[in-house]
Write a structure and sequence with these properties.
Length: 257
């Protein structure tokens, strides 16, 4: 009787899991990434015009972007998100790392799907309490949608990578921002800036209102472009004005190119 009861309970549990969909990818949970190269910051700055023209009837786009660099000790990736001026309707707005770079024509559909090396798929929605079961690229699923203006967040994702040899590498990919109904609004490629700042001069001031958290085919594992940045004393005022330390300097320089 005891064995029969256990079998029935086990079967019921399997049925419940099947009814709610897979809780992880066909290749299992995402694994923590290690040995991520330091001294590189990947920057995705959103363009001045949106891909979805109807999102901004009078023209324009979100302002800002996403910065990413190796986490402490080379474990995972630290992201800093600073985005403002969202559309007046259609939120909250989701954003993800997608598998491919945006093509030269700016068509966000060319970025293809979310970065998902463990074949987790988009559904069911990510459980932010079990980040290892989510798609690697589902940043808003793990850490929250863009739900304020401006929106700022800093978090440490254990499952992204800045190592070109990793399936979870983000540097040759893109950021796509969506309406709540998943329609793509805007997108930008990550570019890499090699920092030559000394530890004494390099700042990592987090944006205000930050929070912390844990944890298809792919294109060539080469960044879509490369920007080399040298520190200069004149940049410190600009960094303070942007409120994101050295990363703000990078954003300003990329925008000026």
């Amino acid at each position: 009787m005891r064995v029969s009861t256990l079998l029935v309970a086990s079967a019921a549990g399997v049925m419940a899991q099947d009814a709610s969909g897979p809780l992880t990818g066909s290749r299992g949970n995402a694994t923590v990434t290690h040995n991520n190269p330091a001294n590189f910051t990947y920057v995705a700055i959103l363009p001045s015009s949106a891909f979805a023209a109807g999102a901004f009837p009078e023209g324009g786009n979100f302002v800002g972007g996403v910065w990413a660099e190796a986490g402490p000790g080379g474990v995972g990736v630290t992201y800093r998100v600073n985005i403002s001026h969202p559309p007046s309707t259609g939120g909250p707005f989701m954003y993800h790392v997608h598998t491919h770079p945006v093509p030269p024509n700016g068509n966000c559909s060319g970025a293809l799907g979310h970065l998902d090396p463990y074949d987790r798929k988009d559904q069911p929605p990510c459980d932010s309490n079990l980040k290892e079961t989510c798609q690697v690229g589902d940043l808003s699923g793990k850490y929250g949608d863009i739900s304020s203006d401006p929106y700022s967040a800093t978090y440490h994702d254990l499952y992204s990578s800045t190592d070109p040899n990793s399936e979870s590498f983000i540097g040759n990919r893109s950021i796509v921002v969506h309406f709540a109904n998943t329609t793509r609004i805007t997108c930008a490629n990550f570019t890499v800036a090699e920092l030559t700042l000394t530890p004494a001069n390099r700042t990592t001031t987090a944006p205000t209102g930050t929070r912390t958290g844990s944890g298809a085919g792919s294109p060539s594992n080469e960044p879509s472009s490369r920007v080399t940045v040298s520190a200069a004393s004149g940049h410190s005022a600009g960094a303070a004005a942007l409120g994101v330390g050295a990363l703000g300097v990078l954003a300003a320089m990329v925008l000026a190119l």
